[in-house]
């Protein structure tokens, strides 16, 4: 409910001539977009509502605001919960398998990480949930048609939306909030599994880690209570991987240890001391830096 309210108020205030009110509108929009991605996450796990139809409709609505095609996101995210721990088999982490980076990659990664430019949220979305050639190389063949339809449907919808509303209105009322939201999402998303040692399958036949063993490959941020509530306790990420069928808004009630939990500010300060290329493509066993 708060995501809908924040979004509506943000759009209403975004056309105000006051610069201060406009700035407030974009901050509200950024928070609402963050909530939409959490709602998408819950709907994809079918833990937002008991009704499958309600989760489906909510997932599509949330995906629209989160800029993520619902079905392609759900398919890829389900695979993430199967293959977490095997870095090269999980498409959401495969791009971070250690490799020799080109100079332009190092420069772009290090600049984005140091400047808080949300490069990673942008690339993460495009490569994992929009770029069909890569996506189809990871997901099962029986899901190909669903993923293709999902991406094309959302793409056509966005083009139609831009056509009827105009580029200028979208640019002024939506894009600044998107940028702020991505900047907030960057450290949250990267905190969950990055710089944690994972295994490499290297084209060998391997078995997925059971849920009971997935906590070791996850990290939880200790956020202020009000912010944790705002994002439906999405910060309890170790518990989420141990119990993926438990609604996020109940995770804080579970009596489950989170050995990799760290205060968000401690983690952010520590992670930002590393170069982006080191933080992303190496882990604490290599650097000796335990985040």
Provide a concise account of the structure shown.
By secondary structure, the chain is mainly α. It has one domain. 61% of the residues lie in helices and 1% in strands.
What would you say this structure looks like, in words?
The chain has one domain (2-287). It has helices at 2-13, 19-44, 52-66, 70-83, 103-115, 119-130, 132-138, 144-165, 167-173, 175-191, 225-230, 237-242, 264-273, 276-281, 284-287; strands at 221-222, 262-263. The protein is globular. It has a two-stranded parallel sheet. It has 291 residues and is mainly alpha-helical. The longest helix has 26 residues, at 19-44. The mean pLDDT is 94.
Please give a handful of descriptors for the protein shown.
mainly alpha; 15 helices; 291 residues; two-stranded parallel sheet; single chain
Using only CA atoms, what is the Rg? 19 Å
- How many structural domains does the protein architecture include? 1
- The low-confidence parts are none
Share of residues in strands:
under 5%
Order of helices and strands: HHHHHHHHHHEHHEHHH
Q: Helix proportion of residues, in percent? A: 55-70%
Sequence-ordered SSE layout with sheet pairings:
Layout: H1 2-13, H2 19-44, H3 52-66, H4 70-83, H5 103-115, H6 119-130, H7 132-138, H8 144-165, H9 167-173, H10 175-191, E1 221-222, H11 225-230, H12 237-242, E2 262-263, H13 264-273, H14 276-281, H15 284-287
Parallel strand pairs: 1-2
Helix pairs in contact: 1-2, 2-3, 2-10, 4-8, 6-10
